[in-house]
Amino acid sequence: MRDATISEQSQATRPGLRERKKRLLQEAIEQAALTLFRQRGYEQTAIQDIAEAVMISPRTFFRYFPSKEEVLLGPTRAVMQAGLAYLRALPVAQAREARAALQGALLHIADLYQQQRRSFLLRYQIARQVPSVAAFYLYALLEAETAFCDLLQERGGETLDRAQLRLLVATHIATLRVTLEQWLDGGAQADLQTLLKSHLKMLE
C-alpha cells in the first residue's frame, strides 16, 4: 500500500505527456534556430526558416516564442528571474541586508550561467554581432535592474532609501554585465562565481 502511494506521488510530480511534448518541441525550435543563426547569420534567418527546419508552421513557432530575439536571449531573462526568486525566498532578516542579499542573488545567477556555459557562450557569440540583439540584451538587464530594486524595497520596507537602492542595484547589475562579458570573451573558461566575487569586492 505504501509503495502504491509513493508511486502515485511520483506520477503526480512528473510532468504530463502533453507538457513533455511541448518542452521537447520548444527545445527543438531553440536548437534549430541556434544552428541556423550560426550557419546563416542571425539577420539572414527568417522565422519561416526556423519553422521549416522543425517541420512546424510559423504560427506554431509563435506559440512558443514571441520573436527571434526571445529564442536567442530568453535564457538571460530566465536566469534573471531565478535571481529574483532567490531573493524572494530569503528570510526577511537577510533580505533587509540589501547589499549582501543582492550579491547572493547575483552569485546564484553566475552559478546558473556556469552550469549552462556552452549554451550562453554560443548565444553570446551570435548576439554580439547584431546591434538590435545587443540592445534587446541591455533592455533585459534594465528590466532586471528595476525588478531587483522593487523587490529589495518591498522586502526591506521603509528602512531603504529608494535613490540609494537604485544606485546600489545599478552598480551591481553593471558589474555582473562586465563580468559576464569578460568571462564569455575568454571562452567561459574561468570560474564565473570567483570572477564575480573579485569584481564585487571593488564596489566595497
TrEMBL record:
Q: Which PANTHER family match?
A: ACREF/ENVCD OPERON REPRESSOR-RELATED, ACREF_ENVCD OPERON REPRESSOR-RELATED
What does the record list as coiled-coil region(s)?
none
InterPro entries cross-referenced by the UniProt entry? Homeodomain-like_sf (IPR009057), HTH-type_Tx_Regulator (IPR050624), HTH_TetR (IPR001647), MftR_C (IPR041347)
Alphabetized, the UniProt keywords read: DNA-binding
**Could you tell me what this protein is called?**
TetR family transcriptional regulator
Q: Name one GO molecular function term.
A: DNA binding
Q: What is the lineage of its organism?
A: Bacteria, Bacillati, Chloroflexota, Ktedonobacteria, Thermogemmatisporales
- One Pfam family hit: TetR_C_14
Q: Which residues bind DNA?
A: 46-65
Matches recorded under PROSITE patterns: HTH_TETR_2
Start and end residues of each HTH tetR-type domain: 23-83
Q: Native species of this protein? A: Thermogemmatispora argillosa
Top-rank taxon of the source lineage equals Bacteria
